[in-house]
Amino acid sequence: MTARTPVGVAVALGLVAGTAFLSRVPLSLRGPDESSLRLSWRLDPVSVASCRPRTEEELARLPTHMRTPTVCSGGTLPYSLTVAVDGRELIRDTVVASGARADRPMYVFRELGLDPGPRALDVAYLPLSGGGAQLPPGAPSLEWRGTVTAISGRVVLVTLDTAGRSLEVR
Amino acid sequence: MHRTITLLRGGSRRTLARLDGWMNALYGWRLNPLYHSGALVVTSFVVLLVSGLYLLVFYRIGSPHTSVAGITAQVWAGRWIRTLHRYASAVALVAALVHAVRMFAQGRAWGPRALAWVSGVALFCVFLLCGWTGYVMVWDEQAHLLAAEGARWLDALPIFSEPISRAFVGERPMPPAFFFLNLFAHIALPVGVALLLWIHVSRLARASLLPPRALLRGAVALLLVASVAWPIGVAPEADLLALPGRVPFDVLYGFWLPFTRPLGAGWVWLLGLLVVGILAAVPLLTRPTRRRRPPASVVNERFCTGCEQCYHDCPYEAIAMVRRSDGRDGWVARVDPGLCVSCGICAGSCAPMGVGPPGRTGRDQLERVRAFLDHVRPGADDIVLVACDRGSGGAAREERFLDAPVLPVSCSGSVHTSVIEYLVRAGAGGVLLVACPPRDCWNREGVGYLEARVHQGREAELKERVDRARVRIVYAAEAEPLRVAAALNGFRAEVKRLARATAEERIDVEAECEVPEASAAEVG
């Protein structure tokens, strides 16, 4: 125990306290008046492929392990997504199925800043039929129109309802 | 780039030297925590493992936040253990950073040391990841921020057909599978730490993984005191439909968050890889040019008796004993240039002066001493300083220190005891060996060997015929010239009280050490 021991202990305590403080610094990562609009849902893709059975000749030309009975061409139906807040269009986009072969589920995941207060919201997620062709049966069309109240620090979430048939706001 | 690195190294070395000096004044060199930064990381890691195992018993992946809140509510055996776990992780990171800066500043990251540096960088990254997963386990507002940010980065990789970030949008509650995966990572990563640690020290003959007992106890006691006195609380549970506001945030483990959030995920990956790449390239960036690179030790088989002393002393396991190739029976030392850092410790350990880096073997050292004596001619009242050019209060940079002639050496552990003997027998009043504090020896064990060779008869020992009253060892860090000055003045006063030193007419230490051809042939 030397005269410097108390100073040494105090410095050590200070260093540990400083390190401990650094592990709990209060930090604010958003402004005081920030809220957000989040769109998030996922749907199975609607197939627009036309399929026909393979002919005997076609099958014979293929290796044994590749002899699938039908051959398809086409893909999945693209969708248009439009979002307007207070009459101002903020998103107009085309959504296609995910995956390298575009045969995986379609998803929407967007986030926009929103000023707090009541806002008129218009969301439309509609199938795109190329050149006025008839839409396949069962292709869902989703729309939501109404007023939402954006609260500071909160997210307005537009998603599918529990049945997965229409949009709802949470 | 080289110029920037040199400037950075110079600046960090000066800063470290100053800090070392202050810490030595407070705690003495034995307990200076800056000298034990690497061992303190291991200490913290052990504390983390023990406290983590306890916390694991109470953690529930089905209700992470509630279980953590439950742990924190246990005043006697919950809150402080969780706090200890948190603070130990913070100390581990800070100590790792200090350790890395020291190695960088002292130029100990290139050549054979590159593996230790690169594995150290990997260890640091794994520690950061461990901390990340640890914070996510709590599932409070900070956890939400960290998890969402991590998911955003992963989404930038072209490997997922759907963004992972969608898991955190609030459509549905977080699935327990996520917390299971996170817990698995938090437990698996320390296994990686242990493996990397083994690689990190694999090059060393005698790695010191723990600090001295007093420092170990002190560090753990301090962590305990801080944990009890200033326990951490629990922030509100993560609400996926809320934008995190003011949160208690870990600057050490999440320092990057304020910088990465405004950036696109692609940029974050690019910058992250760039930073890791630069860190991993430090061995290349700090490597001296080929001309200035110190050469590896070589063995002169003619003098090597196969005594194995250099083989035992080498801190880097760079010396192996192999069968002789000169027709004589027995073993001879062989240096692996890929492992040798040219510390020269083997030169000091070889009694017949048969091994060492070219230009720095015992024989070369004697040549230098003869030239030094021709130039300086110390008198009976003069003290000669044999000073390590890394620390020694900067004495090695001077030709004379407080009017005492200075003989600079690359490491005090490389000084052959014949040099000391020669100086004393040449009539110098005394020889003051100025070494770095043992825990800051740039070559790990040099100072300890010097002490053992001078005072404990370790090969190559200082011969009995040398008056020990005329030899003194002092430890001084780079920023401690006053310590050297005090030791020099005290030693001068002591030498004055001794009988007047006399110079010998004929000193042939070299011949005395040489193994004659005939007797060498009899070895083995």
Report on the architecture of this protein.
- The complex is a heterodimer of chains A (170) and B (524).
- Chain A contains 2 helices and 11 strands.
- In chain A, the strands form 3 sheets. Chain A has a 4-stranded mixed beta sheet with strand order 7-2-10-11, with no helix packed on it. Chain A has a 4-stranded antiparallel beta sheet with strand order 6-5-8-9, with no helix packed on it.
- By secondary structure, chain B is an alpha/beta fold.
- Chain B is 52% helix and 8% strand.
- In chain B, the strands form 3 sheets. Chain B has a 5-stranded mixed beta sheet, sandwiched between helices. A two-stranded antiparallel sheet of chain B has the order 2-5. Chain B has a two-stranded antiparallel ribbon with strand order 3-4.
- The chains are: A mainly beta (170), B alpha/beta (524).
- At the A-B interface, helix 1, strand 1, strand 2 and strand 10 of A face helix 1, helix 4, helix 8, strand 1 and helix 9 of B.
- Strand 1 of chain A pairs antiparallel with strand 1 of chain B, so a sheet runs across the interface.
Largest sheet of chain A: 4 strands, mixed
Q: Summarize the amount of helix of chain A as a percent range.
A: 10-25%
Order of helices and strands of chain A: HEEEHEEEEEEEE
CATH topology of the largest domain in chain B: Cytochrome Bc1 Complex, Chain C
Radius of gyration of chain B: 28 Å
Determine the strand fraction of chain A and express it as a percent band: 35-45%
Total DSSP E strands of chain B: 10
Order of helices and strands of chain B: HHHHHHHHEHHHHEHEEHEHEEEHEHEHHH
Describe the strand arrangement of the main beta sheet of chain A, using strand numbers. Answer: 7-2-10-11
What is the CATH architecture assignment of the domain at 30-46 and 78-169 in chain A? Answer: Sandwich
**Mean pLDDT over all positions of chain B:** 92
The CATH topology of the domain at 30-46 and 78-169 in chain A is what?
Immunoglobulin-like
> Mean pLDDT of chain A, nearest integer?
88
Number of E-type strands of chain A: 11
Q: How much of the polypeptide of chain B forms β-strand, as a percent range?
A: 5-15%
Q: What is the CATH-assigned architecture of the largest domain in chain B?
A: Up-down Bundle
CATH superfamily of the largest domain in chain B: Cytochrome Bc1 Complex, Chain C
CATH classification class of the largest domain in chain B = Mainly Alpha
